[in-house]
Amino acid sequence: MEEKNIRNFCIIAHIDHGKSTLADRLLQLTGTISDRDMQEQILDDMELERERGVTIKASAVRMMYDAEDGRQYEINLIDTPGHVDFSYEVSRALLACEGAVLVVDASQGIEAQTLANLYMALEHDLEIIPVVNKIDLPAARPEEVAQELEDLLGVPAEDVIPVSAKTGDNVKAVLEAVVRQVPPPGGDPDAPTRALIFDSHYDSYKGVIAYVRVVDGVLSQKDTLKLMATGAQVDPIEIGVFSPGMLTTGILRAGDVGYVATGLKTVHECRVGDTLTTVRNAAAEPLPGYQQVKPMVFAGLYPVDNDDYDALRDALEKLQLNDASLVFQPETSQALNFGFRVGFLGLFHMEIVQERLEREYDLDILATAPSVEYEVVLRSGETITIDSPAELPDESVIEEIREPWMKIQVFTPQDFIGPIMELVTKKRGVYETMEYLDASRVMLTYRIPLAELIVDFYDRLKSISRGYASLDYQFDGYEPGDLVKLEVLVNQQPVDALALIVHREQAYHKGQKLVSKLKRLIPRQLFAVPIQAAVGKRVISRANVKALRKDVLAKCYGGDVTRKRKLLEKQKKGKKRLKMIGNVEVPQEAFMAVLRLDED
Description:
Number of helices: 14
Mean pLDDT: 78
CATH architecture of the largest domain: 3-Layer(aba) Sandwich
Low-confidence stretches: 41-46, 48-53
Oligomer: single chain
Structural class: alpha+beta
Distance between the termini: 63 Å
Shape: elongated
Number of domains: 5
CATH topology of the largest domain: Rossmann fold
Helix content: 25-40%
């Protein structure tokens, strides 16, 4: 296919605005998939993706389309992940395209993720085709949403394409707009080969399969290829295109989107954003924008049954084959025994990994409260990074602790501005700007510590705005804060899995709440169990779980009082001894209590 007849585009949208359904209709319309093989969300091949209605892994597909101008076009659709946690993957997918179809729900209008991805697409200088979806809904207001898009993009409202991806109504107009408006790729077929890796997955027979967009030159199965960031060299097992299954072609030319089966054993050697070139005619410099993805949220994952430790490690290793952003290392806890400290891109990523471990690998796991990575400057001048409260050094050797801050944008109807501002201020948020998008919708911009964002912020934002507010966030840098380690002692023993790093102002309040919750959750023993919250050497809150009473005087129905006193003294000594050697089992609910401190 000539380069002038190739079109590469992606679909960007907020979660649940109908991106995958529109992709289904495009595949049907171009005859890429027969009606017999058709199923809903064909590009979302993971059970979890279908259930939650959100794309977790990017995918690509080649479609051949006979346009109204009488020519046949090769149209490559790159389906991008739909959640803010995967924004780096989205940025790589956008770099592989020349155009983007912006899908907006006709009943909900523009939301946070829509704008975040739109700005990213505009940064990459993509041609934007605005589409209003779900016009068949009773609550649809396509004219109003088209007006919103006109105000945002400057595209006349009458040029916004109204479609119903569910019924297939007017979907052909989207393909015509792609052919007409998206420019053909502008690579040089005679230059040294450069191909962008925008995603990858692991295949047990072919090794790592890299999803690539060839920018310059030609990728051939006969050439030895080299990854420019990692330096790894590979002899490709297979080169081909997605239609939507893998179809071997043996060669990919400038402008093509396809795959390379590398035979590599881990995705760590074949990272998203890296550049593939040939060893024989190597490119002088890689394509711009590559960075190593860094986990932002860390949590301890422990098997409920200690015998499942090896099974959990194997399951994490298998997940890591497909997901280079997942990092883990062994960890030991006094309360929970052996487990792993796992790093995630965000809370949604953590939720997905946890659910996949439980479903696909049939494991019962317990996750500790998520924490973030802190930079600790010691008095000696050395800077260390820690991702668990248990790793925090003694207060006496710390100069300062720096925590990660995020820039957040909250989109909300104006009725909820007051409660949302109150919520963000309570979470140590710093107000920046407020912009009116139209007569009734507002965008609030704040800066907020990541530690405050990861626990229950999103749930509470949704509940106070009755589901109307949406959120987007980006990393903004590290800042010093007055932070302390809040330790919990049960029967004078510190429980490392319950420790938290909190702001000094919140330490007393949070310590008191945590102690009160644990008092209700820890079962009574034969001796009194003190529960204490401490900052450094100072106990800031305490509660006692009362002892179970055993009536040792039941058999004394008469006789001298000294007999009774003797028995009571004997019981007192026994309880004292039991308290010294007694082991208090902390139930699983107690570890989850840390996550729900602000609920009541």
